Amino acid sequence: MDSKREFCKVKHTEIAKLIRAAGNRSADLLYASGFPTADDYLFAEFGGKRLIVLSPLEIDRGRLEAAPGVEVLCDTEFSSADGAAVVRELAARFGAEGFLVPADFPLGFADELRRAGISVTPAGEGSFFPEREFKSESEVEKIAEALRAAEAGTRRGIEVLRESSPGEGGVLFRRGEVLTSEILRGEIEAELLRHGAMPAEGTIAAGALQGAQPHNAGSGPLYADTPIVMDVFPRSVSTGYWGDLTRTVVRGCASPTVARAFEAVLEARELGKRMLRRGAIPAEIHAAAADHLASRGFPTGTGERGRHGFFHGLGHGVGLEIHEAPRLSPRNAEPLRGGEVVTVEPGLYYPEWGGIRLEDMAYVTSGGCRVLTEIGTPFEI
Amino acid sequence: MDSKREFCKVKHTEIAKLIRAAGNRSADLLYASGFPTADDYLFAEFGGKRLIVLSPLEIDRGRLEAAPGVEVLCDTEFSSADGAAVVRELAARFGAEGFLVPADFPLGFADELRRAGISVTPAGEGSFFPEREFKSESEVEKIAEALRAAEAGTRRGIEVLRESSPGEGGVLFRRGEVLTSEILRGEIEAELLRHGAMPAEGTIAAGALQGAQPHNAGSGPLYADTPIVMDVFPRSVSTGYWGDLTRTVVRGCASPTVARAFEAVLEARELGKRMLRRGAIPAEIHAAAADHLASRGFPTGTGERGRHGFFHGLGHGVGLEIHEAPRLSPRNAEPLRGGEVVTVEPGLYYPEWGGIRLEDMAYVTSGGCRVLTEIGTPFEI
């Protein structure tokens, strides 16, 4: 009787949570279970207990790799391996009438559960495990490890550029062939793999005017004396955590305008990092960086050839997703609480000469921040 | 009036379809729009018309890269960029009361649409675009291109193994260090990137007893005179299509048992490919391969040390997903219709000596199949 009363007490203060996803694709699931998979499996949490339900194919690996404290069940332990039947038995076991699920929970399965009388309520976007925003020391280490791979990839990129020399029209040549964005990206990404990290789709190695579009990954020949943006954001294969790093370099000599823009962006990045601390307002940090760029002669606006200046957010949280809370954006007035890992990445983009972006990562603490990025910020190489 | 009547006629014979997903993550979306993205966007189809709705950040790239015939709209063309508002305006424009959506449509957004009076009905798993199972010539070319990258990666793996020689206890050494699964995998994956393909999480380079577990990616030292399984399945960065290839090699000399197992698996693979044709029953092809392995002295069963023999499906469809319909499994009695691209990958796994798997890809035609794999099947190297 006592234990039952205890159980009922828990029932009224805790929400039962449910995920069905692949460990490789759902940051919420990987956060909760620690078990990456290519295929979907079930996770449930209730009263501080966490469990996952695996098929016989995955059960041995699951028992070895799941996070401590996560109970690993085999679907053969249920009366049917069918997902809805398993969830029904879990609900009965927990005494739960329904589950909170992530916003991206699959609709087909949700409707099946609802038809079976189990209520499922989607959480707001990104708010299923709000504690994901605040990193433990062990998570910071994992992020730093992914960042080390990004630094190795970027160093390799710089080495490849240094092996090149300009030919006709300033086109860079290396080992007798034109050095393209594709070759540079391939060399950077191969280095990431050697460091246990998987390249993102979208590693940026963009030169000249392509660099003026922040999301342009770059294609075709690279040129001397123009800025080349390398934005490298790999994911650690062993942990699932991401690193994020951007450097912009010039092979040869920059024009005076580009050199001034580089200085302004570097100053804005350092200013942004200095403002990070518990209690700071992201929108104010963004505004300070934007104001600094404007004060150095690089205001943001729209001209005949489209937007120019600094027209994206100053940074974003990084963890098991490459973009997660908090955003360092003009719209985020929520004070930092400490424990966030964020990027600080001001940039300047001009259709006339290209783009410059410089990105570091930092861990927000009570009195400031701990910068996680170790590589320097080379310019003319 | 005439055009309106025409429209109403269409309305009763066509189903409106809706997707909200990221182009990089949803095979259905990439199939329909041709536009890969890291972030979510909306796709809708009605009466043979297809359209996508992009943010201003993606609109220029979308107009360049979306498939021919897909109308590209900017969310600024709607009264609000809010997703539910956009879908409501699309429904009004189509005269549709609701939408069929993929089974993995996000529940949070579905509930929002339902609250706004728009019905959303999930399709069965994998049946949103059933035509994805049957490939066009251009799709077969894209799959073959990804397979060429897999072959290049595998050739590189073989080259690396050939550069190694056995030291104490049979451990392979290369360039003065122990040759591990991690190094072999890294070299294979770097080669994939050089060929424009992204390695999967889970490229297998598993030696000795690890090869006895079909999903074990391999870790630690590799050994001479034991089978080493390389299962390489990259995705083309430019098209999103996958290739899939498995070879098993021995650096040195195989034991008589392993040599006999290799021959049996090779024969089963060739038998499986010979049976592929329009009208063939996948379950029968699987059974024929399993029977052949048993007749060669390698029956499937469970012993004291777990399962042994051939205990996975003979193959699976490949396209914009690495595993898609049709399965060549004991449970699939649906005749092939021609146009499918499938793997044929029998294997033998024994806790006593490891595993052997040999995998080719083929395009099913009316009278047989066109084998897409070009690389040979080396054994002792």
What fold name stands as the CATH topology of the largest domain in chain A? Creatine Amidinohydrolase
Domains counted in the coordinates of chain A: how many? Answer: 2
Low-confidence segments of chain A: 1-13
Tell me the name of the CATH homologous superfamily of the largest domain in chain A.
Creatinase/methionine aminopeptidase superfamily
Strand content of chain A: 15-25%
Q: Summarize the amount of helix of chain A as a percent range.
A: 25-40%
Q: How many DSSP E strands of chain A? A: 23
| Largest protein interface, residues of each chain | A-B, 40 and 39 residues
Largest sheet report of chain A: 4 strands, mixed
What shape does the CA trace of chain A take? elongated
**Strand order in the sheet with the most strands of chain A:** 1-2-3-4
Classification by helices and strands of chain A: alpha+beta
Q: From the alpha carbons, calculate the radius of gyration of chain A and give it in angstroms.
A: 24 Å
Mean pLDDT of chain A, as a whole number? 92
Written account of the structure:
The structure is a homodimer of 381-residue chains. By secondary structure, chain A is α+β, with helices and mostly antiparallel strands. Chain A has 2 domains: 2-128, Creatinase/prolidase N-terminal domain (Creatine Amidinohydrolase, Chain A, domain 1); 133-371, Creatinase/methionine aminopeptidase superfamily (Creatine Amidinohydrolase). Helices cover 32% and strands 24% of the residues of chain A. The first copy, chain A, has 9 helices and 23 strands. Chain A has helices spanning 2-13, 27-33, 59-65, 83-94, 107-115, 137-162, 181-194, 256-275, 282-295, and strands spanning 17-22, 40-46, 49-54, 70-74, 98-101, 119-122, 165-166, 172-174, 177-178, 197-198, 204-207, 227-232, 235-236, 245-250, 301-303, 306-308, 315-317, 324-328, 341-344, 347-350, 354-357, 360-364, 369-371. Chain A has a 4-stranded mixed sheet, with helices on both faces. In chain A, β20 (347-350) and β21 (354-357) form a beta hairpin. In chain A, α8 packs antiparallel against α9 (282-295). Chain A is elongated and about 70 Å long. The N and C termini of chain A lie far apart (75 Å). The interface between A and B is large, with 40 and 39 residues.
